[in-house]
Amino acid sequence: MHGRGRILGIVPRSRRNRLFFLWAVTNVILTFLPVWDVAFNSSTLVGGILPITVLWSYAVFASNLAFAIAYYFGWARKWAADADWEERLVLDREAKSTGTGEEPR
Amino acid sequence: MTDAITLSTLIGIAAYMLLILYIGYRAYRKNVRDDMDDRYLVGRNLNTFVLVGTLFATWFSTFAFLGGPGTFYLTGVNWLLFGFFNSMGPVLILVFGVRMWAVGRRYGFVTPSDLLASYYDHSKRVRLLVAAVAIVVLFPYSAIQLSGIAKAVAGLTGGVVTYTTAILFIAVAVALYSIFGGSRAVVWTDAIQGFIFAFLLIATAALVVSWADGWTAGWSAAAEAQPDKLVFSGDTAGSYFTLMLLWTFGWVLTPHLWQRMYMARSAQTLVKSSVIASGLALWVVTFSGAVIGFVSMGLFPEIPAGFDSDALVPLLYSQFLPAMGVVLVVATFAAGMSTLDAQVISGSSIFSLDIYREYRSNADSRALGRVGHRFEAVFVVALVVFTLLPAGQELLIPLASIGVGMALVFLMPLIGALFWPRASEPAAFWSTAAGWAVMLVLQIGGYAENLPATFGPPAWGFFVAAAVFYTVSLMTDPVSKDSQERFHGYLAEAFPSVEAAKSRVAIALGNLPFRS
Q1: B474 touching A (Cβ < 8 Å)
Q2: Is there a contact between A82 and B278 if contact means CB atoms under 8 Å apart?
Q3: Nearest in space to B473 (alpha carbons), one of B426, B414, B412
Q4: Binning pLDDT at 50, 70 and 90, where does residue B513 land?
Q5: Which of B161, B135, B136 is nearest to B149 (CA)?
Q6: Who among A2, A35, A71 is closest to B237 (CB)?
Q7: What share of chain B in percent tops pLDDT 90?
Q8: What's the CA gap between B465 and B456, in Å, rounded?
Q9: What percent of chain A has pLDDT over 70?
Q10: How far apart are CA B155 and CA B397, in angstroms?
Q11: How many CA atoms lie within 13 A of B121 on its CB side?
């Protein structure tokens, strides 16, 4: 069998990916705090900006975006650049081996 | 004055349709004939700007423009999940999308079935089942789009353009530019439609705040008028979870969005687009929608008789700025058509490549192209029939209610293909079949209400699919070593750890002739 993959295909094995995974799970739990009526579930306007429920929810949702930006700059940008580079290498290697120069499909 | 507004609305619709048809014609001239990649995936060459535009416009439909703000107005904070799934969904592209892109490009996948059937040892039954689910996901969803645009246009023009006329008019336009322009026409028009739609949402939110005498006054009036809508009741967690689950994963699992993963020019284009789409979706669509919906609670404390969620935005403009009617109609067209056309093209690719080709393996690209065109025509005609006949609408309602949710049955097989080499072909097939069956039975039979918690049919179907997937995988042999190597082996090579990538690139650079 090729490698072990993620645990049940979901939980990553590397430390950094586990950290990102934990962040995503925490984000979901924070989203549910007002939904479960545990905290931040009030119509009181905070500083004339937004009601607490709406403010808390959008702060958590904005952290999804922060998560995406951190993931992008921390890892995905480099990873994607490597992937594009690797793809060119693989295609180049295959084109040389087949002598066709055509992209395999 | 009213006649002038109606006339300008009709001129606006005509001008917009001419523009869209012109773009379709330009795309037709540029298309490569009988090339499936070009026809369905724009040659896998979308840059960041167009990819963001098409992700954005394809995902956000008439509902996001009209129904989204109206649902905030009607249900209050229970609709805040709209913000969660639209900020989190695009993030999933970083995890799933780039891998789907990589194997799609490597092995020439065009449809969701291509990827899943290929991994599960070229399974014919997986291909056909996934294709069947995909078409059932697309059809009611498309019909609701068509019906939604027509209702909105009929309402906004005061009946000058009737529901039936609008249906026929939109169907002909979508069929023409989808059949002749292919996916290129669709993504080009998406970029324009997405821009119009985004601009209108932001402008509407700003106008609503000004009509409410400012930000703080608007929110204070809303909190005073309907405070119960600004707090959760505490017993809606199940339905909140169900909708979050299906709409978040819908960003990568619905067939027309799945195919957009294949369209990116590079992995970098895709990851960059996912971050931009997440930001736009959160702030442009959902926050603007929330502002419009919540602040309107103070503007209209009493819900008008016969009001539905689509009626809020037209009501606002009719009360405060009637001259905006023409722009509103065009925006409604833009939002709805950009989703509808993508669904028509997606359905066409699934039918011709997954179903027709499975039985006519010797069909060449030209024959597949012809079958695809015919399918598009039949699909659009069927949409028209279903949206015009009351019996058809009755049949569509239960399916449309779980439309996107049905795509959740693809999640476990996809996880197996991308992340879990232990997955087996019987597990992929039976989990998809069982999950789909549970969703349909619960939805059509109305049994979900008798089950514990407030989870909806899509969540129950997904729980069953996941249980079946893991159980059957552990009881049966995993896919062949060849399939594992083609997917997990290739992905490990294409997306290596940073250290492995550095060493490999260093070796490769050492072998390149241009290195000094």
Answers
A1: no
A2: no
A3: B426
A4: very low
A5: B161
A6: A35
A7: 39
A8: 14
A9: 76
A10: 21
A11: 13
Nearest to A53 among B77, B279, B498 (CB): B77
Alpha carbons B172 and B380: distance in angstroms, whole number = 8
- Residues in B closer than 8 angstroms to A8, CB to CB, are 420, 470
Please tell me the distance in Å from A20's CA to the nearest CA on chain B.
Answer: 11
Token digits for A33?
């705090």
The answer to whether the Cβ–Cβ distance between B416 and A9 falls below 8 Å is: yes
Mean pLDDT of A22-29: 89
Chain A (17-56) residues lying within 8 Å, Cβ to Cβ, of chain B:
24, 27-28, 31-32, 34-37, 41-45, 48-51, 53-54
B178: left (phi over 0), alpha (psi -120 to 50) or beta: alpha
Q: Find tokens 């500083």 and name the residue.
A: A47
| Banded model confidence at residue A21, pLDDT cuts 50, 70, 90 | confident
pLDDT at A3 over 80: no
Lowest mean pLDDT among B151-155, B219-223, B376-380, B416-420: B151-155
Whether the Cβ atoms of residue A83 and residue B493 lie closer than 8 Å to each other: no
CA distance, residue B222 to nearest chain A CA (Å): 10
Chain-chain contact of B419 with A76 (C-beta, under 8 angstroms): no
CA-CA-CA-CA torsion sign (B246, B146, B277, A35): negative
For B90, nearest residue in chain A (alpha carbons): A68
pLDDT digits (tens, 9 = 90+) for A43-59: 999 988 999 999 999 99
In chain B, residues with a C-beta closer than 8 Å to the C-beta of A26 are none
Give me the helix-helix angle, B325-349 and B48-59, nearest 10°: 100
Query: Which pLDDT value is given to residue B192?
Result: 79
For chain B, give the longest Cα–Cα distance.
77
Write down the pLDDT at residue A94.
64
Q: List B264's β-bridge partners, or say none.
A: B46
Which residue, among A28, A53, A65, would best test binding to B if mutated, counting the most B CBs under 10 Å from its CB? A65
Does B446 have pLDDT greater than 50? yes
Whole-angstrom Cα Rg for chain A: 22
DSSP reduced 3-state for A4: coil
Cβ contacts of B389 within 8 Å, gap of 6 or more:
none
